[in-house]
From TrEMBL:
Signal peptide: none annotated. Its EC number is 4.1.1.96. It is an enzyme of class 4 (lyase). InterPro entries: Ala_racemase/Decarboxylase_C (IPR009006), De-COase2_C (IPR022643), Nsp_de-COase (IPR005730), PLP-binding_barrel (IPR029066). GO terms for molecular function: lyase activity. Transmembrane segments: none annotated. Pfam families: Orn_DAP_Arg_deC. This is Carboxynorspermidine decarboxylase. SUPFAM superfamilies: Alanine racemase C-terminal domain-like (SSF50621), PLP-binding barrel (SSF51419). It comes from the Bacteria. Keywords: Decarboxylase, Lyase, Pyridoxal phosphate, Spermidine biosynthesis. Gene3D superfamilies: Alanine racemase, Lyase, Ornithine Decarboxylase, Chain A, domain 1.
C-alpha cells in the first residue's frame, strides 16, 4: 500500500470549533487529528517492518493511550523511573528505558519494569551489569543496548542537538568498548530533531561507517526519535525504503521512537484575555504563562502561531500570515512576574477585549510535558475534543497539585 492509497480519518475543521465554549485555560487534544497521525504512523510501521513506540518526553498524555493502542502502538520509551512506571501502568505495552545516567536508588525498580534498557556509557553498563545478569538468571527477559554517538547531526538549535561538540549523550567510536559487549544485544542512537527521512538516510551512512563492524553482533537497532513523519510534506516512502534496507542489510529489528510525530498539529492551548494595558504599545495579558506553560517559546526560541492572528509588518517576510487579518497589533504576554513572560507581537482583525479567546496552535507535543507551576499561576486544564464534537475535560489542576510539588 502506498501513502496515496491510505484513507485517513477526517479531521474536525478548526472553523467549526467553538473555542469560547471551552473553559480557559486548557490544553485541548483533537482526537480526530491524533487519529490521522496514528493512521500515518501505523502505515509506516506496517510497510517498513519497524516497531514504532511513543517517546514520553514528547507525548505522554495518558488519557489518549487507548487510542494509540488501537493503531498498533505496542510500547513507549521512558527517560526516568516515573516515565517507566507510567509506561507499565498506562501504556500497558513494552517498556523501553534510556537515561543519560541511572542512580543506584532507582535502578532496581527500572530493571524490574524495563523490557529494553539502554545505557549511555560503558561505565554505567559495567556498574549495573551484575544486577542485569542476576535478573536474567532469575528468568527476567531484558534487552540491553548501548547508546552511540555517530558525531553527525543536522540540528540547527544547539539546545536540541544530541550530537553536538562535547555531547554527554552516547558513546563515540573512539570510546567504544567492544570488549564489553557481552550481554549487549542492541545499539541506540538519537541525533534527529523534527527532521525528514533524508537526514536519517545520511545519518545511517555515518553510523554504518563508524559502527558497522559491530552491527552483525546486534539483534536490534533503535533509531531514536526526531522522525517527524506526520508533518505535511515528509517523505514517507523514503523513510520506509531506508528502514527496510537497513533491516535487510544487517538482519536486525529496527525501533523508532518519535514523540512530536504523535502530537504534531493535534491541538491547541486555549487562553483568555484578562486585561489590555497600554504603554506605547497595547499589550494583552492572558490567563496562561509563556515561561510556565510554553517554555520552548523562550528556550528554543520559536514563535507559535495564534489562530486568527498574523505577524506585524516587520515579520511578514518570515512566515505566512492569515488572510484577512486586520491592523490591531498587541504584545501577547502571560501573568507571571517574569518581565520576559511575553510571546511577541501579533496583529488581530479586531480589538481584543477581556474574555476573548486567544488560541495557540500546535501545543500538544512537548509543550504539555514541560509545564511548571511557576508563581503558582493557574495550570491549564487538559481536555479532549472528540470526533463527535463533544468536549471532555480530563484533568483540572488546583492548589493541591501546586502544593504537592513543594514541601
Amino acid at each position: 500500500m502506498t501513502v496515496s492509497d491510505l484513507v485517513l480519518p477526517e479531521v474536525t475543521p478548526v472553523e467549526s470549533i467553538d473555542f469560547a465554549a471551552i473553559p480557559s485555560p486548557a490544553f485541548v487534544l483533537d482526537e480526530s487529528r491524533l487519529r490521522r497521525n496514528l493512521a500515518l504512523i501505523q502505515h509506516v510501521q506496517r510497510e517498513s517492518g519497524a516497531q514504532i513506540i511513543v517517546a514520553f518526553k514528547g507525548f505522554s498524555m495518558w488519557s489518549a493511550f487507548p487510542v494509540l493502542r488501537e493503531y498498533g502502538i505496542t510500547g513507549a520509551t521512558a527517560s526516568s523511573l516515573n516515565e517507566a512506571i507510567l509506561a507499565k501502568e498506562e501504556m500497558q505495552g513494552e517498556v523501553h528505558v534510556y537515561a543519560p545516567a541511572y542512580s543506584a536508588e532507582d535502578f532496581p525498580r527500572i530493571l524490574e519494569l524495563a523490557d529494553h534498557l539502554v545505557f549511555n556509557s560503558f561505565s554505567q553498563w559495567a556498574r549495573f551489569r551484575p544486577q542485569v545478569e542476576a535478573a536474567r538468571a532469575a528468568g527476567k527477559t531484558v534487552h540491553v543496548g548501548i547508546r552511540v554517538n555517530p558525531e553527525y547531526a543536522e540540528v540547527e538549535t544547539d539546545l536540541y542537538n544530541p550530537a553536538g561538540p562535547y555531547s554527554r549523550l552516547g558513546v563515540t567510536r573512539r570510546e567504544f568498548r567492544d570488549d564489553l559487549l557481552d550481554g549487549v544485544d542492541g545499539l541506540h542512537f538519537h541525533t534527529l530533531c523534527e527532521k525528514d527521512s533524508d537526514t536519517l538516510e545520511r545519518t545511517l551512512e555515518v553510523l554504518e561507517r563508524n559502527f558497522g563492524e559491530f552491527l552483525p553482533r546486534m539483534q536490534w537497532v533503535n533509531f531514536g526519535g526526531g522522525h517527524l513523519m506526520t508533518r505535511e510534506g515528509y517523505d514517507l516512502p523514503r523513510l520506509i525504503r531506508v528502514v527496510r534496507a537497513f533491516r535487510e542489510k544487517w538482519g536486525v529489528h529496527v525501533i523508532l521512537e518519535p514523540g512530536s510525530a504523535f502530537g504534531w498539529q493535534t491541538g491547541w492551548l486555549v487562553s483568555s484575555v484578562l486585561d489590555v494595558v497600554h504603554n506605547v504599545k497595547d499589550a494583552a495579558l492572558l490567563d496562561v504563562s509563556v515561561s510556565a506553560h510554553m517554555p520552548d517559546v523562550l528556550e528554543m526560541p520559536y514563535r507559535p502561531r495564534i489562530l486568527g492572528a498574523g505577524d506585524p509588518p516587520e515579520l511578514d517576510h518570515h512566515r505566512e500570515t492569515d488572510s484577512g487579518v486586520g491592523g490591531h497589533p498587541y504584545l501577547i504576554g502571560g501573568t507571571t512576574c517574569l518581565a520576559g513572560d511575553v510571546v511577541g507581537e501579533y496583529v488581530f482583525d479586531r480589538p481584543l477585549d477581556v474574555g476573548d479567546r486567544v488560541v495557540f496552535d500546535d501545543m500538544i507535543h512537548y509543550t504539555m510535558v514541560k509545564t511548571t507551576f511557576f508563581n503558582g499561576v493557574k495550570h491549564p486544564d487538559i481536555g479532549i475534543l472528540h470526533p463527535d464534537g463533544a468536549y471532555e475535560r480530563v484533568k483540572t489542576f488546583g492548589y493541591e497539585e501546586f502544593r504537592a510539588k513543594l514541601s
